[in-house]
Design a protein that fits this description.
Shape: globular
Radius of gyration: 16 Å
Helix content: 40-55%
Mean pLDDT: 90
Strand order of the largest sheet: 1-2-3-4
Number of helices: 6
């Protein structure tokens, strides 16, 4: 098991490194919007509060990057240049992961999904978000039970075929940045 975990950690480090290197070379203001690493205590506290264990890939990424700078004290709106993911989405910090997860769980509790199928479920307790758009109605999550990334969308089915792992998501992002991304005033735009 240790070999698998260290390979997962190395895969996500390499993939995230590709993203950050592109940003540093091509969109320095977007690169500057990245926060430093989360602490192990922050992650452990988030896991305890949410009642889940984050997959190794998520731990590795968060110990490298704790999301992006925010423009407001509540941590809801990303600062200019911070929403560099396609469609203007942004990466979440550990604190924002907890906020978004608790909000999504609250929505599910208020209006429970009649069908337990993960594609139609509003939110599953094992899901942990890692990226969102501004109003949190669309985003990406990791299923802590399987380690698989998925995508939620308000009013649409959840999707799980998006990527095989968090590392795969970051590799795909780096490829998209290289192919479709451009910099304007030091910020990545699509």
């Amino acid at each position: 098991m240790g070999g698998i975990r260290s390979r997962e950690a190395e895969d996500v480090r390499q993939a995230w490194g590709r993203v950050t290197r592109w940003l540093e070379r091509n969109a320095p203001k977007s690169a500057a919007a990245l926060c430093g690493p989360a602490t192990p205590k922050m992650i452990v506290d988030a896991e305890a509060r949410l009642g889940v264990s984050f997959p190794q890939e998520m731990w590795t990424w968060l110990l490298t990057n704790n999301g992006v700078r925010m423009a407001d004290d509540e941590g809801h709106y990303a600062a200019p240049g911070s929403s560099f993911l396609p469609s203007g989405w942004h990466l979440l910090s550990v604190a924002q992961i907890v906020k978004v997860c608790e909000w999504r769980r609250g929505l599910e509790a208020m209006e429970p999904s009649p069908d337990p199928d993960c594609e139609t479920l509003g939110w599953h307790p094992d899901w942990v978000p890692f990226a969102v758009e501004t109003d949190w109605l669309y985003g990406r999550f990791i299923d802590t039970g399987t380690g698989m990334p998925g995508r939620w969308s308000d009013g649409d089915l959840n999707r799980f075929e998006t990527h095989d792992s968090l590392a795969d998501y970051f590799h795909s992002l780096a490829d998209e940045m290289r192919t479709y991304g451009k910099a304007e005033d030091g910020r990545l735009v699509w």
